[in-house]
Amino acid sequence: MAFLQINYYSNVLGMDRVMNVILPELSEHNPQWTNTVLQDIPVLYLLHGMSGDQAVWQRRTNIERLVRQTPIAIIMPSTDLAWYTNTQYGMHYFDALFEELPQKVAELLPQISTKREKNFVAGLSMGGYGAFKMAFSGQKFSYAASLSGALLGDPNFPERDTWQNSAYWQGIFGNLDKFMGSENDVLTLATKQDDSQQPLPQLYAWIGEQDFLYDNNEQAIAHFKALGYDVTFETDPGEHEWYYWDKKIERVLEWLPIEYQPEKRLS
């Protein structure tokens, strides 16, 4: 596998950005991979949570080792602290990641598939929210996974007085009293997509039983299931910590429609 740090210019945001990429390559360790195999490669967009960036998944999990023998590309972008959202202060992070980033990937890495059935998205916490938001916002992603996702839709969330001051949340989402039912509410987006009669993404969600977002996840997942989404929902003892996300990202890889090959001992 190759690891690439790609610095590129975002016309949407008007500034330089960075994405980290894990990319299958021809190698003596994987003689079964041919030029044919390494065309139209499936891709997982892997999203970070609050306080993270494009490097955090690689720094705190085994993601690169896990996919070492699986022909899948991993794209790791950054949304800073903008919640994968077109903010009220004029920075269109959602458009930059949902619309522009796949175009940039197709331009720079043409061996990566642009087909919906081979494009997947996953994330943790804020990134779990971002993954479902992207999956519900169009027909780009066929599978979406949330680990300890901040799925919102709960009138008691975000806990703005505990996490950040209200000015921060209003800068992202606008009037918080109008959040539910807005373009940033994943429950509303899921309902609209269901009403559109377009193909629905497959969903996976995991949440630790001691996680402060546990009730939030239960409510959101019940909503998705009631709409008819195919949802795999799993829980275990656990908290809002990297120890669990490192374990559960392998579960996501097993769940995706790819020929996941756990790493064998290599020299």
UniProtKB/TrEMBL annotation:
It comes from Leuconostoc carnosum (strain JB16). Transmembrane segments: none annotated. GO terms for molecular function: acyltransferase activity, transferring groups other than amino-acyl groups. It comes from the Bacteria. This is Tributyrin esterase. InterPro entries: AB_hydrolase_fold, Esterase-like, Mycobacterial_A85_antigen. Gene3D superfamilies: alpha/beta hydrolase (3.40.50.1820). Pfam families: Esterase.
